[in-house]
Amino acid sequence: MSGELTHDKVKLRPLEPSDLEWLYECENDPSIWHLSNTRLPYSKHLLKQYIDHAQESIYVHGQIRFVIALHDDTAIGMLDFFDFDPFHQRAGIGIMICAKYRGNGFASEALSLAKKYAFDFLNLNQMYCNIAENNKSSINLFTTAGFTCCGRKKDWLKTRDGFEDEYIFQLLKG
């Protein structure tokens, strides 16, 4: 794997101090809180601390966040690896693309880069993701990328309309 995490349209890059305002807007957008189980807004102070420590090793904290950016460095989304387990060689993955950039293939390119990073650099054997049953675009994204549904958690997520199921998708190296 080369040192660059770039594709035709997007690149994955680390969080930078200059991302504070953008991250503040993203993390405090209630329309996406259901994706991350966020319940309260984040302060700029807390997010600055997060950015300051974001470059610490995935081997220490079990997680890492990348900014999904256009080649002109415009931040358009985030990609997280979480629950990193080097012994069992697995990690969870999550992707969020800002609303005005959705539908352009950016998430697909970012996921392609993430797969290469996970399997070639982190030496993972598998990745998984959790997707709400009504999130059809994410289900399509991950299944198109080769993930398969391997489980269903009944009434897992509380919504305004009651409870909904959450699916577990998995991708094995190979």
Question: What do you see in this structure?
Answer:
This protein is of the alpha+beta class. The protein has a domain at 10-124: Gcn5-related N-acetyltransferase (GNAT) (Aminopeptidase). 29% of the residues lie in helices and 35% in strands. It has six helices and seven strands. The chain has helices at residues 20-27, 33-36, 44-53, 58-61, 106-121, 136-144, and strands at 10-14, 64-70, 75-85, 90-97, 126-132, 148-159, 162-172. Strands 1-2-3-4-5-7-6 form a seven-stranded mixed sheet. The longest helix is centred in the middle third of the chain and has 16 residues, at 106-121. The radius of gyration is 16 Å and the shape is globular. The mean pLDDT is 90.
